[in-house]
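Box 3.1. Reading complex inputs
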Amino acid sequence: MAQELMLAIGGVFTAVLNLLVGGGCKQWILWFTQRLLALAVRRLPETQQERFAEEWHSHLNDVQGEVRKVLFAWGCASAARDMAASFTDRRTNIGLVWKGTIERLRAWKRSFVNATVLIAFEKTPTGAMNAHTLVLERKHVTVGPTRPDGKPHPHAGKTGRIVRFINIYSDPQWLGPPSAMIKLDSPIEGFIWVSLTSLEVLPELVLTAEPSHACQWVRSR
Amino acid sequence: MEGHKTGHDGRPALTNFLPLCRLATMGKGPQLTTQTLKVLGILMNNRPDGLPGVEIGRATRLQSGTLYPILLRLEQAGWLESYWEAETPQELGRPRRRFYQLTAVGARNAKSAIRDFTSSIGGLAWHRS
């Protein structure tokens, strides 16, 4: 079995060497590069495939040298996975300026609530009220001074000590654009919390706008 | 208005646990690595109508695997915008290029980020001397 495997690997190696030595090198590299670029494009979301296929082929056209072409295509193939993730990763990180004790946040982690919809009302300098909706899914909320990747949290509130990191789940399909995209500079005027025992009820909740769950209005000051 | 202390079923409501807090988002700005700053620097110091990926790559010496995720992140963050060349491939005699240029927000943020970076380098140099 091992001998057959070695023979197969040797056969492929010899074939590749023959191609390189026998003048088929350029065609083979062209074929390989095209295959790599096709793989890279396939890794992207469908909406982005046409754009990057054209863009990368255009870039490849300007790359000099066969080896550099392969390296370029290889780089695209390795980058495409990360790029695809940036289109689909809906988790956003926010810092919670925490005026209570961390024990309370830990208590929430231990509570029956699986998820909480938070609608925060921000009063802008012009007096208008903005509402920001966030979904806190308990399993995505971590309590601690560092981000889940272990790095220290970079944000510090204007007034607050903290910063305890929490990871917020925000799904634009349900609740519009991720609220964490918006920087809240103004004080929060109040909150509406809707506590959910299951995240599965959320689409229904948003569609009907008639929550049958605990709902409180709290002024922050 | 004070928040209720229990939920609809009598169990402790979340407001018991999170009574007073203020949100401050971390923002979804791009991670400002030295490679990202290189890209921003090249775009700031070049043509206002932008540069194609190939020229940014040449100027920054970044490989495609590093360059395109950076360009994409900056574009998603609203710091860059991109557009195709107006001419068709037939008119150009080659595939169309996609140009990247800084937005007004991107230019402002890039300037600030590069200034912060250079001042921190200066600070380090000062402390070491």
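In summary: The CA atoms of residues 40 and 75 of chain A lie 9 Å apart.
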